Amino acid sequence: MDNPSALARLDRRVAECRACPRLVEWREEVARTKRAAFADWTYWGRPVPGFGPADARLVIIGLAPAAHGGNRTGRMFTGDRSGDVLYQALYDVGLASQPTSVSADDGLELYGVRVTAPVHCAPPANKPTPGERDTCRPWLVQELTLLRPTLKAAVVLGAFGWQAALPAFAAAGWTVPRPRPVFGHGARVALDGLDLFGCFHVSQRNTFTGRLTAEMLREVLRTAADAAGLP
After folding, report:
1. Residue 184 vs residues 41, 154, 198, 199: alpha-carbon distances, Å
2. Which of 7, 127, 220, 227 is least enclosed, having the fewest CB within 10 Å?
3. Distance between CA 154 and CA 188 in Å, rounded?
4. Do 139 and 35 contact (CB within 8 A), yes or no?
5. Structural contact between residues 117 and 63, judged by C-beta atoms closer than 8 angstroms
6. What positions does the domain Uracil-DNA glycosylase-like occupy (predicted)?
7. Can you give the chain as a three-state secondary structure string?
8. How far apart (Å, rounded) are the C-alpha atoms in residues 196 and 190?
């Protein structure tokens, strides 16, 4: 199988999905009405596929695109405050070519890392329903399956992502312990050949209050990069 081509085909299929009526309505309404600061933008307004190389050794799994972030730019964690924090940290530990992520054509490259989410559409109030999470899971399962030949580590941002990711890893062929591991910042779980790490989400609620500091995020990313064999 030509993995880059297979992943590119998957990304195109993700971007065409209309499986969740509430999410379709919301993402398209946001794209029409826009935010005043982005009035001159043509919003993406579609599901946002993963971002990063097909031979990634480390995957970062978030929650869902932001209404005026990924839903506007068409790239995961791009154009919002959460992305500002995440990509700065990736740059600081040598996993990104630049510290900012503002648009899909800004030249950003990730080194050995792919960024994705268990829900690919921006949800109202940043809260997908359990049903929407479950409907979207097959996309994550397919993505993880394609990444499996090279994937050695994963960082999951937040409890929602953790709860969504564990069954996806199981469906993609990894053995997930029973009972399922509990989410926590700094949690580390071995999944036969892959190290899974928990990290508080890079949401403004966490970063503005100091629950997640830049150094805490860098520490998790450094540890995961080491586990993945990344320089």
Report:
1. 38, 14, 6, 7
2. 127
3. 10
4. no
5. yes
6. 49-221
7. CCHHHHHHHHHHHHHCCCCCHHHHHHHHHHHHHCCHHHCCCCCCCCCCCCECCCCCCEEEECCCCCCCCHHHHCCCCCCCHHHHHHHHHHHHCCCECCCCCCCCCCCCCECCEEEECCCCCCCHHHCCCHHHHHHHHHHHHHHHHHHCCCCCEEEEECHHHHHHHHHHHHHCCCCCCCCCCCCCCCCEEEECCEEEEEECCCCHHHHHHCCCCHHHHHHHHHHHHHHHCCC
8. 6
What lies within 8 Å, CB to CB, of 54 at 6+ separation is 3, 4, 6, 7, 8, 114, 146, 147
The model's pLDDT over 163-174, given as tens digits with 9 standing for 90+, comes to 999 999 999 999
CA–CA dist 45, 61 (Å, integer) = 21
Backbone angles phi, psi at 203, to 5 degrees: -70, 155
| Tens digits of residue pLDDT in 9-18 | 999 999 999 9
Cis peptide before 179 (omega within 30 of 0): yes
How are beta strands 188-191 and 194-199 bridged, if at all?
antiparallel
Name the nearest CA neighbour of 125 among 30, 33, 206: 30
pLDDT score recorded for residue 11:
98
Structure tokens at 230: 């990344």
Picking from 219, 224, 93, 222, the residue whose alpha carbon sits closest to that of residue 151 is 224
Q: Tell me, what's the pLDDT at 3?
A: 78
68 band by pLDDT with thresholds 50, 70 and 90: very high
